[in-house]
C-alpha cells in the first residue's frame, strides 16, 4: 500500500493570486488555514503543537470572534497606530488572538503579507507564536496563539489575589531574554515597544513574549506608542528601532519586575546611582527576595538603560546573566502565580457512542473504513442536483473518477483512491461531503493526518451538521496529538448523532 506526501506553502511560494482579493471559485473550498500542517514548535518547542503559518479569510476570523464583538476585545492600544486585539476560537476549536489594524496602517497588502510571513516563520516555546494573517480589501489582521492568563502588567500592577513572588519574577526575565535571543538568532532582532503588556502567560502560567511586537504597527514604522519617558533615547532622535533599542526596553521591563510599578528609567537610574536599591524594590515582596540576586538584576537593568546604545549588553549577555539566578525550577509557573492549572482535556462524552463513535474513540481505522463503505452516498442526496445541461463529457469523466475512487476505497487501495477522489474534487462541478470523508480516511491510512483534518473540515463546511465530518476531525486531531481538541470534537459528533437519531434522520 503506497502513501502520498503532502507539501506546505513556503514564503517563497506565495502566489501572485494572493493579492487578487476579488478572485472567486465555483465551489466551496478550504482556506489555507485548514490546509496547514500541524507542526511541533521548533527550537525547543517542548512538543507543543503549533500550526504552520498561513492565510485566513476574513469570514473565518469574523466567525471566530463573533463578528469582532466588543465582548471579545482583549486589548486596545496605540494613538499613533491604533489597533485592537480580539479573543477568538476557530472552527477546529483552537483559541486565537486576532490583532486588527486601523484601515490606514498598511495600504499595501503585499507589504503587510511579507512582514507577516517573516514573523510567521518563527516558532519557539517562549513566544506566543504568530500562526497567520488576513488581507481582505482594506482589512489587515494578524493571528496568534491565545494566552489565557493575562499580561505581566496585569499581574504586576493590577493584581487581585497575590503579587508575583521573587523567583517567578526572575523566571519572567529569563524566559523573555531567551525569546529575544532566539528571535535575534533567527534574523529578527527588532522588537517594537517591548513592555509589560507584551509579556503574556500561557495555559501553564509560563511567560511568553507576544509575537505582535516583532512586527511594526504600520508601514511607517511608528513603533512606540507608550509614554515617551520609557522610549529609547536614540528612537527619540531618529525614529528608528535598533537591536540596542530592544535592550533598553528590556531594561524597563526589569525595572517593572524589581519595583512592581512603572518607574521612568531616568528616575530609576538616579536611585541606582544613589545606591537606594531597597527603595527601588517592590514593597509587596515584603523583603522575600535575595539581596544578592536583586543587586545583580539592578546592575543588569542599569546596563540595559545606558544612554549610549553600544554600552548596552546583547541578548546572549542577558541569558548568560539571568540563567544562574533561576531557582524553584521544579515548581510550575501556575503554582507560583497562584492560578488554576489549565484543564488538559475535557471529560470524555458521557452519552452512549454509536459504532462510528466507538471506532473513532479507539482510533480503529479498519472499523471506520468498513462503516464508510457501508454508508454509501446517502448523505449527499441534497447536494447533488444537476441540470441536464451539466451532463457534459467532463461531467461523465468526473463521475467515472469518483466511481474508480470508490472501487479503490472498497479494495483498500488508498493511494489510488486519493488520486481518483482528487480528480473528482478538482473539477468542482459537483460537491460531496462523502468523498471528502472517504479521502480523509485515505490520508489517515497514509499517515497524513494534516491532510485528513483538512478534508474532514471541508466535509463539515459542505454539510455542517453531519456527525461523520466531526468524527473524522476527531481522529485526525488525535493523530496530531491534539487530544483535548479531539475529545471536544468527538463529544460534538456524538451530540449531533444523538440529535439526528431523535429527529428520525439516522446517522
UniProtKB/TrEMBL annotation:
In this chain, composition skew of type Low complexity spans 21-42
- Location of the protein in the cell: Cell membrane
Name the reaction it catalyses.
L-seryl-[protein] + ATP = O-phospho-L-seryl-[protein] + ADP + H(+); L-threonyl-[protein] + ATP = O-phospho-L-threonyl-[protein] + ADP + H(+)
For this chain's UniProt record, which GO biological process terms are given?
brassinosteroid mediated signaling pathway
User: Under which main EC class is this enzyme filed?
Assistant: transferase
Q: Name the Gene3D superfamilies on file.
A: Phosphorylase Kinase, domain 1, Tetratricopeptide repeat domain, Transferase(Phosphotransferase) domain 1
Q: What topology does the record note for this protein and the membrane?
A: Lipid-anchor
* Primary subcellular site in the record, as a coarse category: membrane
The UniProt record lists the Protein kinase domain at 71-326
Residues annotated as region Disordered? 20-46
Q: Which InterPro entries match?
A: BSK, Kinase-like_dom_sf, Prot_kinase_dom, Ser-Thr/Tyr_kinase_cat_dom, TPR-like_helical_dom_sf, TPR_BSK1_C
PANTHER family xref list: SERINE/THREONINE-PROTEIN KINASE BSK5, SERINE_THREONINE-PROTEIN KINASE BSK1
This protein's name: non-specific serine/threonine protein kinase
Amino acid at each position: 500500500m503506497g502513501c502520498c506526501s503532502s507539501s506546505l506553502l513556503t514564503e517563497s511560494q506565495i502566489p501572485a493570486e494572493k493579492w487578487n482579493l476579488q478572485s472567486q471559485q465555483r465551489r466551496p473550498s478550504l482556506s489555507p488555514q485548514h490546509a496547514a500542517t500541524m507542526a511541533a514548535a521548533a527550537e525547543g518547542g517542548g512538543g507543543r503543537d503549533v500550526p504552520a503559518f498561513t492565510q485566513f479569510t476574513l469570514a473565518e476570523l469574523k466567525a471566530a470572534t463573533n463578528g469582532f464583538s466588543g465582548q471579545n476585545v482583549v486589548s486596545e492600544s496605540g494613538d499613533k497606530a491604533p489597533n485592537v486585539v480580539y479573543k477568538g476560537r476557530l472552527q477546529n476549536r483552537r483559541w486565537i488572538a486576532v490583532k486588527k489594524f486601523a484601515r490606514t496602517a498598511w495600504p499595501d497588502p503585499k507589504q503587510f503579507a511579507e512582514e507577516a510571513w517573516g514573523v510567521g516563520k518563527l516558532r519557539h516555546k517562549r513566544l506566543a507564536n504568530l500562526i497567520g494573517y488576513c488581507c481582505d480589501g482594506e482589512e489587515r489582521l494578524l493571528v496568534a496563539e491565545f494566552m489565557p492568563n493575562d499580561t505581566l502588567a496585569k499581574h504586576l500592577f493590577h493584581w487581585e489575589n497575590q503579587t508575583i513572588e521573587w523567583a517567578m519574577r526572575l523566571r519572567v526575565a529569563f524566559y523573555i531574554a531567551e525569546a529575544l535571543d532566539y528571535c535575534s538568532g533567527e534574523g529578527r532582532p527588532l522588537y517594537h515597544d517591548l513592555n509589560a503588556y507584551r509579556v503574556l502567560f500561557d495555559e501553564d502560567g509560563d511567560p511568553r513574549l507576544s509575537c505582535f511586537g516583532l512586527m511594526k504597527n504600520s508601514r511607517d514604522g511608528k513603533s512606540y506608542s507608550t509614554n515617551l519617558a520609557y522610549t529609547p533615547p536614540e528612537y527619540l532622535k531618529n525614529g528608528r528601532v535598533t537591536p540596542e533599542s530592544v535592550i533598553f526596553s528590556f531594561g524597563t521591563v526589569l525595572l517593572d519586575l524589581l519595583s512592581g510599578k512603572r518607574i521612568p528609567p531616568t528616575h530609576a537610574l538616579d536611585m541606582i546611582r544613589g545606591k537606594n536599591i531597597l527603595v527601588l524594590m517592590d514593597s509587596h515582596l515584603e523583603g522575600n527576595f535575595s539581596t544578592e540576586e536583586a543587586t545583580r538584576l539592578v546592575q543588569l537593568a542599569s546596563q540595559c538603560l545606558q544612554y549610549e546604545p553600544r554600552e548596552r549588553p546583547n541578548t546572549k549577555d542577558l541569558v548568560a546573566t539571568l540563567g544562574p539566578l533561576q531557582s524553584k525550577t521544579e515548581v510550575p509557573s501556575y503554582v507560583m502565580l497562584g492560578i488554576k492549572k489549565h484543564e488538559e482535556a475535557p471529560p470524555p462524552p458521557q452519552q452512549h457512542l454509536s459504532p462510528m463513535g466507538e471506532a473513532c474513540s479507539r482510533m480503529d481505522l479498519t472499523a471506520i473504513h468498513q462503516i464508510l463503505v457501508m454508508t454509501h452516498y446517502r448523505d449527499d442526496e441534497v447536494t447533488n442536483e444537476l441540470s441536464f445541461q451539466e451532463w457534459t463529457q467532463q461531467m461523465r469523466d468526473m463521475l467515472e473518477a469518483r466511481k474508480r475512487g470508490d472501487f479503490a476505497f472498497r479494495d483498500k487501495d488508498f493511494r489510488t483512491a486519493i488520486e481518483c477522489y482528487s480528480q473528482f474534487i478538482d473539477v468542482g462541478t459537483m460537491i460531496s461531503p462523502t468523498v471528502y470523508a472517504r479521502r480523509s480516511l485515505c490520508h489517515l491510512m497514509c499517515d497524513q493526518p494534516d491532510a485528513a483534518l483538512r478534508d474532514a473540515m471541508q466535509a463539515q463546511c459542505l454539510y455542517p451538521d453531519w456527525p461523520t465530518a466531526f468524527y473524522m476531525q476527531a481522529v485526525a486531531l488525535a493523530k496530531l496529538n491534539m487530544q483535548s481538541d479531539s475529545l471536544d470534537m468527538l463529544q460534538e459528533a456524538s451530540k449531533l448523532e444523538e440529535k439526528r437519531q431523535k429527529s428520525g434522520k439516522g446517522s
